[in-house]
Amino acid sequence: MPKVSRKRRSGYHSRQVASCLAAPLPLPLYPSSSMQRYVPDAIACSRRPARKLITRLLSAALLLLPAAPLTLLPHPGVAQSLPTLGDTEREGLSPLMERRLGEEIMRDIRSDRDYVDDGPISEYLNNFGLNLVSIHPEVRGEAGFDFQFFMVRDPMLNAFALPGGFIGVNSGLVLAAQSESELAGVMSHEIGHVAQRHIARMLGQQKQNSMIQLAAIVLGALAGVSKAGGDAAMATMMGGTGLAVQRQLNFSRDAEREADRIGLQIMRDGGFDPSGMVTFFGRLQAASRNYSDAVPPYLMTHPLTTERIADIEARIRDQRYKQRVDNPEFQLVRARTQVLQNDTVQGLRENAEKFIAQARQNTKLQTAAAKYGLAYVYYRQNKFEQAETALKEAQEAAIPMKTGIMFGSLDIDIKIARKQSSQAVQLADALRKQFPISRTIARQYADALIAARRTDEAVAYLRDQAQLYRSDAQVQQLLAKAYASQGKQALQHLALAESYALNGSLLAAIDQLGIARRAPDATFYDQSQIDAREREWKERWKDEQKEMKDRS
């Protein structure tokens, strides 16, 4: 079933950088998890300090990057009048290098326990984000970046752009957004950062020094995670960076304004309400003002959010108000996100109570979303009959709204859990024909085939899927599950190895190859494939270790 990844990792590579939406520097609103941050329940749904490695690293990374000179150049495409900030090719960070850097960071993020590996949520975010990109395809740039969007489980209001077209949003941000226009304002802003290659421009001039400094950030973060001294770890990371921060200030102002302007144009031309950006950024500003004791000094001494909001308001003042009806999927995704953000035993109980109360609201969509959230809570509590009943009530309340895969995907999971595998296969088969490009439904169809013990069909289908989507680790995991059902040990562990490698866990992948090699049913062809993969992954692992050593 789709779930939040719980795998623990010791940390990330030293190449982690991020550009964040609401700050004078490219930092999140609440950048330090060791500063005992608290967010009001109405905004973040949690009062506990978030001690998460993803937030810690993504928050701190850009503080230590060297400043890049500001050069005003014409930029073709979506924002011809906007300044561009240097020539990244000349400064040494090519689009290919930028993409590779982003992919390496993503391999580590996918292995983190707070990476949200949930099919319906991931599919919604990517469909929504790619729709924004399609409004002005030129934001992909000459490199033609393949944008990918993902969620991190964290109650803090934040979004960030990684090198090469990877954009992350926190679960707290999705819950705080009251409309798709507000979400579009945040995501189009991050698309603007990628379009203008702000991270590449900051790394380009002195990228070797930047990487060494980022390695120090990782060491400081790991010290904070492994020991109780979170504040001391942050002091290690932040120490001696004041000059770098000051030098970056003007660059950051221009980069943020530039991303705002591109984001506004995407929203305006895409039919979204541009005031959604103002509304949401205003909410961020209010959070920092009302809880100033929890906000780092960078925001208190450089209140650029006020200037940015004023600039955005001036740009949209003469535009006609646009009433936009949100896709019903948005509210269903928010309900599902609420469950995933706090899926402890107590959290599930509290969410059930909230959804029961919300289901009494007047609008059909609010009722449908609350019933859907309740169904998902019951499913996570293994109360499958109650989950089925709540889901039917949600579907009835949603008629005739278009809800995409949201209801059907949960229905498949419930049917598999209730051992109704034949019905699950029938439903999944119908849905994959209705939504032929849905990766979520494709995986669930394979899972239903395995549950129905139609493993030969499952293997054939998954092998085709593995050829079509070579970077899909979940397909390899399902293939391993299917091979296990067939009793094919060598192929099972070979598929597991592929899934680990795709998630960036090379040592675990190599270990699985060893198990596959020793399997009694390993054929000569299997052994050849194992040997080839082992050489490739060992070489890659050695290269990564050497690279990290050179930067230490």
UniProtKB/TrEMBL annotation:
Q: Which cofactor does it need?
A: Zn(2+)
Q: Which Pfam families match?
A: Peptidase_M48
Tell me one GO molecular function of this protein: metal ion binding
Which cellular component, as a GO term, is one annotated location? membrane
- By its UniProt entry, which Gene3D superfamilies does this protein fall under? Metalloproteases ('zincins'), catalytic domain, Tetratricopeptide repeat domain
Q: Which CDD domains match?
A: M48C_bepA_like (cd07333)
Its keywords, alphabetically, are: Hydrolase, Membrane, Metal-binding, Metalloprotease, Protease, Transmembrane, Transmembrane helix, Zinc
Q: Which superkingdom is the protein from?
A: Bacteria
Query: Per the record's keyword annotation, is Nucleotidyltransferase included, yes or no?
Result: no
**GO terms classed as biological process:** proteolysis involved in protein catabolic process
Residues in Peptidase M48 domain copies: 147-315
Question: What residues form the membrane-spanning segments?
Answer: 53-73
InterPro entries tied to this protein: Mito/Outer_Membr_Metalloprot, Peptidase_M48, TPR-like_helical_dom_sf
Q: Has the keyword Zinc been applied to this entry?
A: yes
| Protein name (database record) | Zn-dependent protease, containing TPR repeats, protein
